[in-house]
Amino acid sequence: MSLADAAASKTTSAIRLDGVEKRFGDHLVLKRISLEVQPGQVVALIGPSGAGKSTLLRCINLLERPTAGTITVDGVTVHADHEIKERDLAALRSRVGMVFQSFNLFPHMTALRNITLPQQRVLGRSKAEAEARARALLSRVGLADKADQYPARCSGGQQQRIAIARALALDPKVMLFDEPTSALDPEVGLEVLKVMRELADEGMTMAVVTHEMQFARDVSDHLVVMGDGDIIEEGDPHQIFADPQQARTRQFLRAVLDRE
Amino acid sequence: MTGIWQDFVTHQGQLIDGLIVSLQLAGLTLLFGLPGGLILAIAGTSRTRLTRYVAIALTEIGRGTPALVMLQLVYNGIPVTLSGLLSAGIALALTTAAYTSEIMRGGLQAVPEGEIEAASALGMSRWDTLRDVVIPQGLRIALPSLMSFSVIMFQATSLAFTIAVPELMSQAKSIANSNFHYFNLFIIAAVMYAAITISASAFTDRVERRLSRHV
């Protein structure tokens, strides 16, 4: 472990990004972004489409490999310019849960199996142990009666809550949400937001890419506004909503808030 | 018509024995050919270049060579003496593996990328993702094509009469050679092949419906 790694692991941040850059060929999608998320903090990432919010989120669990920079999650550091070892990748991903816009449940498995399988494969839990945990989580997201249903038989909101339970079953230190309600109609999205709000209240560290401005304002502790692959402005959500400092933020907030 | 029936009744023992050998040969072909196809399909998408190239080469050779040539090659061409049935099984299994690997690869690739991404975000290994997420769904997508290809391979077992395997076609021919009722015996053979083929297709439909219950 290098000195830099040792220093990084001593910091208390749950997530720490240092100079994270992502290029697709000539196109610079993320411009050396640095960001810290403290344990228990809920960070909302907002901004126009194409700003790089989802790409940034996907860099945190390395679904997207950054072209430069370092990423530290709960003490595990990965450098973009070194080759990423399979072991580090597994260690990092075991600490991070992710929820996708399109749910991405496994359609050939029941809700219960969707939640038990990763526990057995990744954490080596026994079937009985995994099932107990899965059933507990299903009732927590209000879906105890859906255990034996296949995803196709569940509504979008139910599928997303199953996906949240699936991620939580692995006891992640951090949860990433990539536009979790964008594929849902507004009313159904509320069930998902309610679960997320409860999770935040229980002290889960969360990074949420969202177009739900109310959630960003009222639930998050820290707001990050992105545009053109960069952080335009960050800080207290209420303050930014009330008095944005940057013209680009003002323009974006006016566009989304005047609609409501 | 009565002549055909008469010939069938007279020679039914020999014909049914032939059909059983045909079915055994088809079983042998699929038993080794289908897993072979799956291995080639997975190897064809490997991240290791060598594995990928070997798989692609085997697939192209297997598809580029007529089953009859493969059959003669395995039976007469290699220095090891194998029984006719085993040679035919190996040759047809190679053809099956090569063709079905393409069908299976298509099925595996049709599994949505998002699910594979979710599996890796959950920390599942590449192998577990393949085994639990990609293969079960990919094979289900490929199943109708695989089953109809299996029916074609059942019919291709008739090629084995060229290397003296006593399957249905060669039994029919040998009976006809002695009583000269070529028309009758080939009609009987055709109907017997069709009986198996048509019931296999009906079975395919049932399996397909069963598998797509949760969709």
Output the keywords.
heterodimer; A: 260 residues; alpha/beta; Rossmann fold; 6-stranded mixed beta sheet; 4-stranded antiparallel beta sheet; 10 strands; B: 215 residues; mainly alpha; MetI-like fold; 82% helix
Describe the structure.
Chain B: Residues 19-204 form the ABC transmembrane type-1 domain. Chain B: InterPro entries: AA_ABC_transptr_permease_3TM (IPR010065), ArtM/GltK/GlnP/TcyL/YhdX-like (IPR043429), MetI-like (IPR000515), MetI-like_sf (IPR035906). Chain B: It is found in: Cell membrane. Chain B: This is Amino acid ABC transporter permease. Chain B: Its main location: membrane. Chain A: This is Amino acid ABC transporter ATP-binding protein. The complex is a heterodimer of chains A (260) and B (215). Chain A starts with a helix and ends with a helix. Chain A is an alpha/beta fold. Helix content of chain A is 40%, strand content 24%. Chain A has one domain (3-257): Rossmann fold (3-Layer(aba) Sandwich). In chain A, helix 4 (111-123) crosses helix 5 (127-140) and helix 5 (127-140) crosses helix 6 (156-168). The mean pLDDT of chain A is 91. Chain A is built from 10 helices and 10 strands. Chain A has helices spanning 3-10, 53-60, 86-95, 111-123, 127-140, 156-168, 186-201, 213-218, 237-242, 247-257, and strands at residues 15-24, 27-37, 42-46, 68-73, 76-79, 96-99, 174-178, 205-209, 222-227, 230-235. In chain A, the strands form 2 sheets. Chain A has a 6-stranded mixed β-sheet with strand order 6-7-8-3-9-10, sandwiched between helices. In chain A, strands 2-1-4-5 form a 4-stranded antiparallel β-sheet, with helices on both faces. Chain A is globular. Chain B has a single domain (2-211), classed as MetI-like fold (Orthogonal Bundle). Chain B is elongated and about 70 Å long. Chain B has helices at 2-43, 49-64, 67-77, 84-109, 113-121, 126-156, 168-179, 182-211. By secondary structure, chain B is mainly α. The chains are: A alpha/beta (260), B mainly alpha (215). The A-B interface holds A 61, 63, 90, 93-94, 96-98, 100, 102, 104-108, 117-118, 121-122, 150, 152-153, 163, 166-167, 170 and B 112, 114-115, 117-125, 128, 132-133, 136-137, 140, 214-215.
